[in-house]
Amino acid sequence: MKLLLHICCAPCSTAAVEAWRQEGVRVTGTFFNPNIHPFAEHSLRWQTLLSCAGAMGLPLMGGPEYDITGWLRRLKGGGQRPERCRICISQRLGHTARLAAGSGFGAFSTTLLVSPYQEHEIIREEGEKAAEAAGVRFAYRDLRARYRRSIELSREAGLYRQKYCGCIYSDAEAAAGRRQRAGERAFPPGSSDAAEAAAGRRPKRQA
Predict the structure, then answer these.
(1) 94: how many CB neighbours lie within 10 A of its CB?
(2) For 184, how many CA atoms within 13 A lie in the half-sphere containing its CB?
(3) H helical segments located in 33-82
(4) Which of 57, 116, 117, 129 is the most buried (most CB within 10 A)?
């Protein structure tokens, strides 16, 4: 079977391509992620994929399309999860399905299925909708068990690993999470300093 694989990033592609090839599938990748912000991040992920694909012998179709304005317009102010994720996934899988149908592929899928942080039910639902609209099969696989494998492979290859999903909202959420974890390490729960910080007061200096 010929499969067109939507690739969100190079690290996830490592384990996903390995898994599909183990099933005897001929995989071609495509990078369509207009949600990724800023442009420098979008370019870095594309360049990382080019290097990774070359090392894996993975053919790629199409080039990167950066359209953050159009992507934000699609959200119409709906920046909360899971609504924004559904809109984003629908756009990316719809594009991949149409490309697959028009290029003679038997099915399409996505590397998003590697991540345990993604909305898998939404991916399945939107993938099936896109498949029906384009007239091509959506190949769903739960690849979350291969997430650790993707980390291993990407580290071995020295690939850039991003710290957020891609959009401006996920960047802000990831940054907030990092700040919270840093605060918890600085002020362990239950300590007097943690109570002072929670109340908005400066923790007392230690003598």
Answers:
(1) 18
(2) 7
(3) 39-56, 68-75
(4) 129
For 97-120, write each residue's pLDDT tens digit.
999 999 999 999 999 999 999 999
Contacts of 67 (CB under 8 A, 6+ apart): 34
Answer CATH for 2-164 from 3.40.718.10, 3.40.50.1820, 3.30.70.1520, 3.40.50.620:
3.40.50.620
Edge-to-edge strand list for the sheet holding 107-110: 60-61, 26-30, 2-6, 107-110, 137-138
What whole-number distance in Å separates Cα of residue 138 and Cα of residue 2? Answer: 12
State the virtual CA torsion across 177, 183, 186, 189 in degrees, nearest 10.
Answer: -100
Predicted TM-score of the model (pTM): 0.85
Contact (Cβ atoms closer than 8 angstroms) between residue 55 and residue 10: no
Q: How far is the CA of 6 from the CAs of 127, 162, 176, 177, 202, in angstroms?
A: 11, 17, 29, 28, 48
Alpha carbon distance 31, 178 (integer Å): 28
More reliable by pLDDT, 185 or 130:
130
Residue 131 φ/ψ, nearest 5 degrees: -65, -45
Determine the residue type at 186: A
